[in-house]
Automatic annotation (TrEMBL), chains A, B:
Keywords: Glycosidase, Hydrolase. Residues 163-523 form the Glycoside hydrolase family 31 TIM barrel domain. One of its GO terms (biological process) is carbohydrate metabolic process. Gene3D superfamilies: 2.60.40.4040, Glycosidases, glycosyl hydrolase (family 31). It comes from the Bacteria. Residues 46-121 form the Glycoside hydrolase family 31 N-terminal domain. It comes from Proteiniclasticum sediminis. Residues 535-587 form the Glycosyl hydrolase family 31 C-terminal domain. Belongs to the glycosyl hydrolase 31 family. Pfam families: DUF5110 (PF17137), Gal_mutarotas_2 (PF13802), Glyco_hydro_31_2nd (PF01055), Glyco_hydro_31_3rd (PF21365). Residues 638-688 form the DUF5110 domain. GO terms for molecular function: carbohydrate binding; hydrolase activity, hydrolyzing O-glycosyl compounds. InterPro entries: DUF5110, Gal_mutarotase_sf_dom, GH, Glyco_hydro_31_AS, Glyco_hydro_31_C, Glyco_hydro_31_N_dom, Glyco_hydro_31_TIM. This is DUF5110 domain-containing protein.
Length: 713, 713
């Protein structure tokens, strides 16, 4: 075991010869340290455990099922495409091996830098034990200290590099559907948004736009003039965001396939031939994204679409998902042939059925193909969790080179490290109330892993949404940097206008409120880029007491807000816990109201056409008038809500929304400070924002009195 | 359309020539009435709708997904065996066509007497419309009025006959598992209960006890002397409850099969031959339970097991579930053969996979076999929802004749009408927190359908339970008349001692508390038998206000209690809404505490080793000391808790627990009345119970003062 220090708070322990995953950034100073754990190694596994008392809590593990507190479940880090996320499932699309264990004495963060399977049993098999089972003997374990839970997260973020920063238009509303089959469909969607006066910044294209599911192809028949469509939409402030899949169709004459063969870019089977799997295009080869030459090659291919005016993409199927491979299909067929004419016993029948039922994403597929990585050959299984990461690095670096400006990029598969290259959507969820609830609970864990540009498929991907579910989901997604409504072919249409006029009108109200908050959300995203740490913070990270410790359905956003969405059907509201006095803010029909609410629990009515949240004591919240596109957001008059008993300050960060100026800290800053003294309320403003001219403040005091004030800057 | 009146509150409308399902009981007086609805009939469907305002609510529909308020979903009445009850599902094992629609002006109950498919769209497709789609043109619609929601339920119960009444031992704790493979396994379970001092009244046997899954057979090898086992267990107060499946194995020499053929008892295919389907035993025939001769024949067969000392059964697979039939399997095999060597496109592949993946319970199976019913031939599809009902009627009537005493009987498939013959468990749920929550929300709807002997598979059938989930589930099931812990082969063992000593100890506390409450629960079950109506009542049925209207996770039990179980992981408690002042009751470590809580919402800590609930104002709750079996329950000293501000009364009903005396109203009654006057507290007792000798009262007043009093009777 080698030990090293990365920062004051982060030390590492290296076992064997770990794969250089590329996740950790920064120097490693060799030091001599004692690991505060015992690690048992046996049969190619490494295992360690923590004892758990009833009060201990575990946080993190990225996009996973379960609660904010991860206790009482098993989890598996092994990127998997399984669209039915019910409670038995242990793995989703990401593999994020950062967690914090908080016991009565101390809280500590842990990160396991290992690219294959890891299993976590967090007080499930035994209530009093948390066990980590690493499927290998070569890995690095980081131990991260900090003053408190929030600093542990920041200290971890220092060693994994800064996150992807989306363009400002990426914070606008995105409409998506697997099933916008033609350019006309897309035009109709945009027109419907206009007709219903619904804000819109982008329309995502699923597989439909491709020719035979071929990456970087465009269907001549269905999307004959994509460049015209793209331009036409951009003129109305709407970006097109097409999908790219991991698998490349095997087809003579198809340029990507032929270049891939010629350039030796595809993963190999055990015989050294390109490995064949079946996904959407039928038989495909997978690019070996672990190789730099392949990253460069594939990343440049995006040019085919950026040349048509495209500046946003989503990378899909990059776990990689595999529908079947020939060996397993053949096994199924042979079993069926053998069954013919037999009087099958029930177990023989189950066995036959299972050959087809469980043919997708079999473990053995990932043992059957191989990568070249840093000059060595590895099975996919060994590096499995890096595949989506490196596909996305390839795209992100390619796009930056091609475009020279920021772009939207999200990926389905993910691991920590990929946060430097893109955001993520939380995968193929369902139109279930439990997934709305899951969406909320995942947010802090995604931030812990360094991902800020995150959001779920609002309304749910699979299954059928309905008006009430969509509206409630919008009331949550109104706060997530990525706000995308996406649904699957064959499921109910779920555009905000798909459920009738009444729902469309209510959705409009919520979306207008979202756009009011974009300056704040964008500012918080820039702050997360600068400083790391949490944008969405569990109440348990900030407050004491049983209610705060167990709060799974409300959380803090930034230092300013507490959000408490309704996540249940047929509810006129919900119980909200206020760990301290806060101002309840209601945005409804372009009116903003502010009411003082005292500490404790109370029932909060929450209608479907409003946006409600709480503003913390001595905090300020900037907002602007609504707009129908981020392009049209008008900041010349900045509104500020405050609940100030003594003093409150907020620094609004902004920039041009599209260049990389923020990397040189070239941001606009508007620092507003409100002080309440004996001689009344004083407002100080320091402003470098070129467009902000006037600030209109609405300030609540501890007696529920409201004061309005105007400041010219 | 013919119209008729059954009672003052119940009128009926007959369309076409409905099947005489046997659900409705009592005379139908011909009258001339106007239907308060428009029914459209077209293409063999009948459809009617109700407009819905945002405030309207819909209740009922029996064992289904969704909330207490059924809005925002689709439901289907078509008994189906589908073990993965996630949010997309629209049908479970029962088909209960009773619902109440409450709008601002009026509440009304509706029952559709129709034995095939009915679909309900309760404000899903359109928020403002509730549509009922009956897959036929011949049916009877009952419209039920009442003073309030609770009376509507009672008025409905008057026309469907009195419910099944379990023996008292049926309210004891039942341990079950698919996977108690031998008599020794069963002995070990009983011994473990004794060793851990856990109460136990019955052990259920799943398919394991049978020889080759054959009904009424017992494996010579694994259960060689079932009679001895049964006797041995009964001596310790434990009953064996074996399973019986619907399908009869096709096997020469197997008596049931041969008698079935000889007596012409099996359902037929279109050619008039016995229909062949595959279930657990491989190929089976299904008894035609719709025929009286078959009911009699099959009902008598239970004697094979009652002769061995058995007095409880569960009827399973009686939707009926079908794994495959030969036609469909052959189609799958042929598709596989055709696929051989082909380069399958993705849709061709999906099509092939689906032939096997979706081979169970196909719609067409139920069109391929036929029943004789009241002298006519019907496809199973036409009478589908009566199959489980009539299998259970057959068992229930058979058992009554054979045993001459009460027995435990539960069924998986169900429809209204079957409530006269057995209880139900809510089917093959999963070890999911959401199913614990669903269990709670289903209870009032099951009562509405006339079922009181109900409970879910506590801990969850499929998937893996863990300690905390089981304990939280026990804290709910402690209140349901049927309290059975059941789990599937291959899933984690989930006996209360399977998760270590600490969990076993906590479970013991909860189960001891259950046994304290059995006299009350049994009394409430007898009252439900006498009077109908709800045992579990939504708060919305009793209280005004938004909080009560939306309360989906707490409800009233009897006239006395409010239960508020914890249904979330990692919670130290929950928010409880008190629509009026109540006494909070905590049973913990044989101590009972009583605290006055005022109206409103508050956070209630709820530990894993206690039982908490609320006692309403001016109500009394009787309980007794814990026991390890219902046989040992000791009522000579009856404890009574009260929260009495002015006066409170409770009538405890009881009987010998096993005979049919209750049918002649031969019950014991202990009527306790507590009056608080200026001169203190007065207690009146009228007692006909032969064993109750002493009453110990603990009475709380509106000032949180407690008074104790002893009354000898």
């Amino acid at each position: 075991m080698n030990t090293f220090r990365m920062t004051k708070h982060v030390v590492g322990f290296t076992f064997g010869e770990p794969v250089e995953t590329g996740i950790l950034m920064g120097a490693k100073e060799k030091v001599s340290l004692k690991l505060p754990l015992e690690i048992a190694q046996k049969d190619g596994h490494s295992r360690f455990s923590f004892p758990l008392t009833e009060r201990d809590r575990v946080y993190g593990l990225g996009p996973n099922l379960g609660g904010i507190n991860k206790r009482g479940r098993k989890y598996e880090s092994y990127c998997t495409d399984d669209p039915l996320h019910h409670e038995d499932k242990t793995t989703l699309y990401g593999a994020h091996n950062f967690f914090i264990l908080e016991d009565d004495d101390v809280a500590r963060g842990y990160f396991i830098d290992f690219p294959s399977r890891i299993r976590y049993d967090v007080g499930f098999t035994s209530q009093s034990q948390f066990t980590v089972d690493i499927f290998g003997e070569n890995f690095t374990l980081l131990v991260i200290d900090g003053e408190n839970l929030k600093s542990i997260v920041k200290n971890f973020h220092e060693v994994i590099g800064k996150p992807y920063m989306p363009p400002k238009w990426g914070l606008g509303y995105a409409q998506s559907r697997w099933g916008y089959k033609t350019a006309e469909d897309v035009r109709r969607v945009r027109e419907a948004f206009e007709r219903h006066d619904l804000p819109l910044d982008s329309i995502y294209l699923d597989l439909d736009y491709m020719e035979d599911f071929k990456d970087f192809s465009v269907s001549e028949e269905r999307f004959p003039k994509l460049q015209e469509l793209s331009q036409e939409l951009q003129e109305t402030g709407v970006h097109l965001v097409p999908i790219i899949d991991a698998g490349v169709k095997i087809e003579e004459g198809y340029d990507i396939y032929e270049e891939g063969i010629a350039g030796d870019h595809f993963v190999k089977n055990v015989k050294g031939e390109p490995y064949v799997a079946a996904v959407w295009p039928g038989k495909v080869h997978f690019p070996d994204f672990l190789q730099e030459k392949t990253q460069t090659w594939f990343g440049e291919k995006y040019k085919a679409l950026t040349d048509l005016g495209i500046d946003g993409f989503w990378n899909d199927m990059n776990e990689p998902a595999i529908f079947y491979d020939e060996t397993s299909l053949q096994e199924g067929v042979e079993a069926a042939i053998k069954a013919q004419g037999e009087n099958l016993g029930v177990y023989a029948f189950f066995n036959l059925r299972d050959k087809f039922q469980s043919i997708g994403n079999k473990d053995e597929y990932y043992q059957r193909f191989f990568h070249e990585f840093h000059g060595k050959t590895y099975s996919n299984e060994e590096l499995h969790n890096l595949y989506g990461f490196y596909m996305t690095k390839s795209a992100s670096e390619g796009l930056r080179k091609i475009l020279g400006k920021r772009f939207v990029l999200i990926s389905r598969a993910s691991s920590i490290g990929m946060h430097r290259y893109s955001g993520i959507w939380t995968g193929d969820n369902s139109s279930w109330w439990s997934h709305l609830s899951l969406n909320l609970r995942m947010l802090p864990a995604l931030n812990m892993s360094g991902f800020y540009y995150v959001g779920a498929d609002t309304g749910g991907f699979g299954g059928n949404a309905y008006g009430e579910l969509l509206l409630r989901w919008l009331q949550l997604s109104a706060f997530t940097p990525l706000l995308r409504n996406h649904s699957a072919l064959g499921c109910a249409q779920q555009e905000p206008y798909a459920f009738g006029t009444e729902v469309a009108e209510k959705a409009r109200e919520i979306l207008r409120d979202r756009y009011r908050l974009i300056p704040y959300l964008y500012s918080e995203t820039l702050k997360a880029w600068k400083e790391g740490g949490l944008m969405f913070t569990p109440l348990a990270f900030e407050f004491w007491g049983e209610e705060a410790q167990h709060a799974e359905d409300q959380m803090l956003l930034g230092e300013e807000l507490m959000i408490s969405p309704v996540t249940q059907a047929n509810a006129g509201g919900r119980y909200v816990y206020l760990p301290e006095a806060m101002a309840e803010v209601t945005f409804k029909e372009d009116q903003v109201t502010l009411t003082l609410e005292k500490e404790g629990v109370r029932y909060m009515s929450y209608a479907l056409d409003e946006l409600k949240f709480h503003l913390r004591r001595n905090r300020l919240l900037p907002y602007v008038p609504p707009a129908s596109s981020t392009r049209d957001l008008e900041v010349s008059t900045l509104h500020v809500l405050g609940y100030v008993e003594t003093e409150g300050e907020y620094e609004l960060l902004d920039d041009d929304g599209i260049s990389y100026g923020y990397e040189d800290e070239k941001m606009y800053s508007t620092r507003i400070r409100v002080t309440r003294g004996e001689d009344g309320v004083k407002v100080d403003v320091k402003n470098t924002h070129p467009h902000i001219k006037r600030i209109l403040l609405t300030i609540l005091d501890g007696e529920n009195h409201i004061m309005e004030k105007e400041v010219l800057v």
